Amino acid sequence: MTEPVEEYAEAPLPAALRPFVASMVGYRLAGFPPGVHVGMPSRHLTVILALDSGIRVSGNGIGNEPRRFGALLGGLHTSPAHVHHDGTQFGVQLALTPLGSRALLRAPAAAFASGLVEMDDALGGVGDRLRELLALSDGWPRRFDLLSRELLALIDDRRSVDAPTAAAWAMLAGTRGRMPVAAVAEAVGWSRRHLTTRFAREFGPTPKLAGRVLRFEHSRELLGRIPLADIAIRCGYADQSHLVRDWREFAGASPTQWLRDDALARVGDTPAA
Asked: Does residue 220 carry a pLDDT above 80?
């Protein structure tokens, strides 16, 4: 019987990429049982460059029937994505910051908030070129070096988020969603209504919804480490029931159910979409 293959590697990012790319992870898996991984909402846009026949995903705005992507691009989503695999996976996943959307993808993050798309639909051939380049390269250091160079060449510093909107995002993200929207609006010198309009136009979710996603993201980091009631307090929820309601909306399951199901499916899973 062939031994399963399980490779994960994370790239050291060049300083010039760090404002735009939060992480770059390579994975190669083979010989595992088929399964489904739940990709959770988070503060990042997702790019997955499949270095095999593609990645099959359902949910997150594209319906229940799995679709195959070669170079997947997903915006700031607020519902789970389901990654279907047959036990073999090979690719690179990028977590892009919302500020990196304009610089690397030539459009605000809001342009990709409605679901998942092929990267080539946004950048015309870039996804296929990157996939081919990486698939022909040997070893993760070489792949990461090539991909970093390609991304650096894509950066367009002229396409930046306006300062007040960028500051609003930084305040929400820096407090993990616990800063009241009214306080954010006051800090940037806008009315709450104007902030909501400008923020949603740039990022997709409203400031209130983005704050909820950020609190959910924090709760996920703490899940399994401390009791749910303590997680609710630490993450700014009114109570444990409030926490569970957000989990059912964003993850499609309660925290305890997700923790149990994730433990069963953890081996051989790709990073989250």
From this structure: yes
Closest CA to 54 of 23, 25, 17, 83: 83
The arithmetic mean of pLDDT across residues 246-251, rounded, is 95
Which residues are within 8 A (CB) of 266 and not within 5 positions of it... i.e. 6 or more apart? Answer: none
142 within 8 A of 150, measured Cβ to Cβ: no
Q: Are 117 and 62 in contact (CB under 8 A)?
A: no
Compute the average pLDDT of residues 17-42.
93
Cβ neighbour number for residue 19 with a 10 Å cutoff: 13
Cβ contact 20:100 at 8 Å:
yes
pLDDT at 273: 53
- Mean pLDDT of all residues belonging to the chain: 92
Q: Could you tell me which of 46, 48, 41, 45 has the C-alpha nearest to residue 26? A: 48
Give the pLDDT confidence of 107-140 residue by residue, as tens digits. Answer: 999 999 878 999 988 788 899 999 999 988 999 9
pTM: 0.91
